[in-house]
Write a sequence for this structure.
């Protein structure tokens, strides 16, 4: 079976949705490790309660460059058998850009969720970007991670209507409901080997 590593920075609600789906035996993958770049990430306690091992690799004050930091992550992933051959790495609110070396090592084995309909509104504050732009629809995107920011092949998307009186917060909450459905589904498709990548496109069987 594949081994899963989840990277978080905070609340961890997407991580929780994935872990609970696995527990309900909906996804054939072994949840090996949750890694946080912040010691106070709320998601750490949630993972522990669910019986999943956790590690902290503090990024604040880290002495070294991005590649050095990512090497530490890779070492921990490998320690828990999340390898480039049989691993999947899920970024779940992990608010760091990965080094090209990390992306290359786990090529087509890192996936991310973004709270907008990519390629619209990549980067930070995606929900605010959608509101400020006047979009009528937004949503979430699960995609493979490549060397760009939120540019990798799209696996799944879900749509949310933007209401006239939406604030960043109300829109984020409605998008989050969709995120919690979409991310576990994408992990399931990966674990069941149902996703093929053809250039920028994914074909789902
Ligand atoms: C989620 O909305 C996720 O889409 C977003 O951060 C939140 C994390 O929440 N990710 C990004 O904006 C990445 N660019 P969570 O910690 O409760 O899963």
């Amino acid at each position: 079976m594949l081994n899963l590593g989840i990277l978080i920075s905070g609340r961890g609600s997407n991580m929780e949705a994935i872990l609970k789906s696995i527990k309900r035996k909906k996804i054939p993958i072994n949840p090996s490790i949750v890694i946080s770049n912040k010691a106070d990430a709320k998601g750490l306690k949630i993972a522990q309660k669910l019986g999943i091992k956790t590690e902290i690799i503090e990024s604040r004050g880290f002495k070294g460059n991005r590649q050095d930091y990512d090497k530490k992550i890779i070492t921990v992933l490998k320690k828990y058998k999340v390898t480039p051959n049989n691993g999947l790495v899920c970024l779940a609110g992990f608010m760091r850009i990965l080094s090209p070396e990390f992306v290359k090592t786990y090529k087509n084995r890192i996936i991310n969720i973004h709270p907008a309909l990519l390629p619209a509104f990549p980067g930070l504050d995606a929900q605010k970007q959608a509101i400020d732009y006047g979009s009528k629809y937004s949503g979430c995107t699960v995609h493979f991670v490549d060397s760009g920011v939120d540019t990798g092949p799209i696996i799944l998307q879900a749509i949310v209507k933007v209401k006239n009186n939406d604030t960043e917060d109300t829109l984020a909450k409605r998008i989050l409901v969709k995120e919690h459905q979409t991310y576990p589904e994408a992990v399931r498709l990966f674990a069941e080997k149902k996703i093929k990548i053809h250039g920028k496109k994914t074909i789902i069987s």
